[in-house]
Prior knowledge:
By secondary structure, this protein is mainly β. 0% of the residues lie in helices and 46% in strands. The protein has strands at residues 4-7, 10-13, 18-24, 33-39, 46-51, 58-60, 68-73, 78-83, 92-99, 116-117, 121-126. The strands form 2 sheets. Strands 2, 4, 5, 6, 9, 10 and 11 form a 7-stranded mixed beta sheet that branches. The relative contact order is 0.31.
Amino acid sequence: QVQLVESGGGLVQAGGSLRLSCAASGRTFSRYAMGWFRQAPGKERELVAAVSWSGGVTYYADSVKGRFTISRDNAKNTVFLQMNSLKPEDTAVYCCAADPGAPPTVVRAHPGAYKYWGQGTQVTVSS
């Protein structure tokens, strides 16, 4: 069993930055691909960014490329999402999730591949 706890959300003005953290319990964190999903009211959940458990492969949604950066620190069982140049349309609940089935250099986009989920953290970007 893996527990994920997000932190770092909040209210920020457009153009600002936030850094989300996701702390994981369990000794096998380093073998899980990790993803950050977001869901805004009335919209479907979408994968924002993901990183392979090797750390060498990343994925970004087109809407966040060049603005968001995902990284992981396996020694600290933590994955991060650095969000820069935030826009009002980035407003959503952001959740981290763990995919225990992905090979070391693979990231998967479908939410069904992710077995463990955090509770989420609210990010609100004002215009």
